[in-house]
Amino acid sequence: MTAERRAGARWFTPRVRMLLARVVVVVGVVIALLALVTARWGLLFVAVIVVGLGAAMSPARRRS
Question: Is residue 55 part of a domain?
């Protein structure tokens, strides 16, 4: 394994993946709240998709 590959691998540690997943879920929740307040159902649909993607990104879902 090259030094470049090892240095780049630290960005995908479980801690970083969990942080990214949490950020994506928080963004989805904010979009959902905005959609509910403004009664924009298309935004609510997008928020559900974003929250689902955030849940799928967590390191607990990754088995490699």
Answer: yes
Look up the domain containing 53 and give its range.
Answer: 32-59
When comparing pLDDT for 63 and 58, which is higher? 58
- How many independent structural domains does the chain possess? 1
Go through 6-20 and write b for each residue having 16 or more CB atoms within 10 A of its CB, e for each that does not: eeeeeeeeeeebeeb
pTM, two decimal places: 0.73
53: exposed, middle or buried (C-beta count within 10 Å: 0-12, 13-18, 19+)? middle
In angstroms, the CA 41 to CA 45 distance is 6
Place of tokens 């307040």: 37
